[in-house]
Structure formats: C-alpha cells, structure tokens
Recover the amino acids of this structure.
C-alpha cells in the first residue's frame, strides 16, 4: 500500500488516515494546548471506510500518521452471487471480485464507482 506521512495536527476532517492498519475518514479533531514541558495532544475521531467502525485515538501533535493512497475507479457489474460482486473495470476491462456493500443498492449491468485501497476493494456508489 502506498502511503503519505503527515503530522497528527494536519489530520483535518475529511482526510483519510490509517488507524491500526485500517483506512478511516477523519470526522473531527481536537488539539489541546501545550503544557509547560509537554507537547500538544490531538484527539482524532474517525470512521472506517471499509467496516464503518468508529475509532478514536489520542496522540502527540508531532506524531506521524500514514495516509493511504485511494484509487477511485469506475466499473460495470457483471454478476452478483451472495456477498461477492463480479465487476469489470471500464478502463482496462479487467474482471475483479469485490465484496458487496450493503449500503449501496446495485443490480447486474449497473455502472459503479469502486475504491481500491491497497488490496481491499469496496463499492462506494452507483453512477
């Protein structure tokens, strides 16, 4: 997975970061003031992109946080079988299997946007 590194104070709402190895979108950030001998602390609340779980971390402001590379691609659904969806990429015509997202209503033949985050792929919306 390709990463970019940022400081914890740069993790503004809407930015995607890695928390415990899973990609998350930052929802809020609170920065405390520095103490007499201490560092500023950042409290970051984020929601997982793939699993939807809420995660909260508290780290020093100078802590380095990884930002995952998210590739947004378009595809067409070829078939649906259980919790797997067979998708043909519209740029290179490659056929891939993607886990079905319960939040997005899809049918065979629909064009979709899917996100590729490292080895994980998830359907984000119907076009």
């Amino acid at each position: 997975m390709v990463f970019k590194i940022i400081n914890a104070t740069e993790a503004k709402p809407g930015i995607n970061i890695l928390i415990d190895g899973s990609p998350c979108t930052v929802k809020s950030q609170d920065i405390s003031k520095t103490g007499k001998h201490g560092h500023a602390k950042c409290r970051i609340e984020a929601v997982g992109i793939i699993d939807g779980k809420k995660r909260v971390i508290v780290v020093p402001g100078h802590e380095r946080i990884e930002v995952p590379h998210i590739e947004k691609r378009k595809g067409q659904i070829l078939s649906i079988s259980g919790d797997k969806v067979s998708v043909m990429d519209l740029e290179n015509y490659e056929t891939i299997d993607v886990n079905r997202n319960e939040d997005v209503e899809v049918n065979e033949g629909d064009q979709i946007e899917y996100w590729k985050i490292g080895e994980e792929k998830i359907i984000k919306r119907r076009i």
